[in-house]
Known about the structure:
The protein has one domain: 3-Layer(aba) Sandwich (Aminopeptidase), CATH 3.40.630.30. 29% of the residues lie in helices and 30% in strands. It is built from 6 helices and 7 strands; from the N terminus they run αβαααβββαβαββ. It starts with a helix and ends in an 18-residue tail after the last strand. 28% of the residues are buried.
Amino acid sequence: xxxxxxxxxxxxxxxxxxxxxxxxxxxxxxxxxxxxxxxxxxxxxxxxxxxxxxxxxxxxxxxxxxxxxxxxxxxxxxxxxxxxxxxxxxxxxxxxxxxxxxxxxxxxxxxxxxxxxxxxxxxxxxxxxxxxxxxxxxxxxxxxxxxxxxxxxxxxxxxxxxxxxxxxxxxxxxxxxxxxxxxxxxxxxxxxxxxxxx
Length: 198
């Protein structure tokens, strides 16, 4: 996790009309994050659950301090209020250069376009700064809001996997969606050092 990388990335995104900024999750976000997660329980259920206690938050923070995981907050420009979170999970280098994303909007600011803009920025950050080639999203078929979001930002549906992930006490079916660097207009960057030459 590298806050300087996000700052550098955002400095190269000079659009003054942007509604959101990005930053990494930190220990000082605990109180605001937990309050938002608790206030958004109904919005997130049964699709996902976020930390709701200080102990769970600390475990979450520890997980996203690992080199193959990132938790990026989407914050309202100006106020700095947290509007959502995008997690880039299970980053795999080498020939794959891929990560799996999970995301959540928070109830107080839902429906204002923050997640669409924020997820688009996180995608660009993942491709331009982290130098990933591919992002994947696994979404339960009845999670219509999430499906609309990934369609809006350019993901393509790649398939359907029965009993893919254990969520809310059971193995749940998921649609698999993905986006690659060739599907979006991004700044050209050298490949990641772990990508083989051939």
